[in-house]
Amino acid sequence: MTPPSGPDPDLTRKERREQARSERKAMEAAAAQSAQRKRLIQLGGVIGVVVVIIIVIVVASSGGSSGGGLATGSKKNSTVATVTSLIHGIPQSGNVLGYPNAPVTLQYFGDLECPICREFTLGALPKVIQKYVRTGKVKIEYNSLETATDEQETFRTQQVAAYAAGKQNLAWYFIELFYHEQGQEKSGYVTENYLQGLAQQVPGLNLPNWSAARNDPAYAEQVTHDAQIANAEGFTGTPSFLIGKSGQHMEKLENPNLEEPSSFEATINKLLS
Amino acid sequence: MSDRALRITMIVLAVIGLGVASYLTYVHYSGIPPLCSTTHNTCLKVQTSIYSELAGVPVALIGLIGYLTILTSLLVPQREETRFASMAFVLVGFGFSAYLTSREALSLHEYCEWCLSSAAIMTVLACLSVWRFLRGDAPPSGDAAAAAAEPDAGAPLVAGS
Question: Is the pTM of this model over 0.80?
Answer without folding.
Answer: no
